[in-house]
Specification:
This protein is α+β, with helices and mostly antiparallel strands. 35% of the residues lie in helices and 33% in strands.
């Protein structure tokens, strides 16, 4: 039996751990995060505390092994008239905790949170070169609905993003399937 991870919403007191993990994510996978390392490292703990405060537009969830934050994912509900959609972003798991179900657990937690907010669909964007993440999203039922060419540019390198979506309710998924078949 492997380690037991706890997943919960991050709060302002998690700001230091969140900052460290986010910087690790950007440093180790720079072409998958839409933020440059210099800009990210200039953000203060107070900036992270504000981002994690309740009542903000985005909820960030963390996977903990004991006291250590080892993974994260963010969920941003859209505003009316698109409030039935939430966006999943910034999914990252530290290298030594990959292939342990942490990312899938974070996504499942975000899906539960999205349902609680009334969302019927989650969208996400994943770099086309990020095969492990693409396989994860495929396995979890996120279907490709488009490609955004040159979605990011870092140090002169352009990165295309695959746009994916998952319906969270059976009725909406059935209606979508029927409309695609028509």
């Amino acid at each position: 039996m492997g380690p037991r991870y706890e997943i919960r919403r991050l709060v302002p007191s998690d700001a230091g751990a969140h900052r460290r993990l986010r910087l690790e994510a950007i440093a180790t996978t720079p072409l998958t995060f839409a933020e440059e390392f210099d800009r990210a490292s200039a953000r203060s703990i107070a900036d992270h505390e504000a981002a994690l405060a309740p009542g903000g537009d985005t909820a960030t969830f963390g996977a903990f092994l004991g006291e250590d934050l080892v993974g994260m994912a963010s969920l941003t509900p859209k505003r009316p008239p698109c409030a039935h959609i939430a966006k999943l972003s910034s999914v990252f798991v530290g290298r030594e905790h990959r292939q342990a179900g942490v990312a899938a657990g974070l996504v499942a937690y975000a899906e539960t949170a999205a349902r609680a907010l009334g969302a019927m669909r989650i969208t996400l964007a994943v770099a086309t070169h990020n095969d492990p993440a693409r396989r994860l999203y495929e396995r979890l039922g996120y279907a490709v609905y488009g490609i955004e060419p040159s979605a990011m540019r870092l140090d002169g390198v352009f990165v295309d993003e695959e746009l994916r979506s998952k319906f969270l309710t059976g009725l909406v998924a059935a209606v979508a399937d029927a409309s695609l078949a028509a």
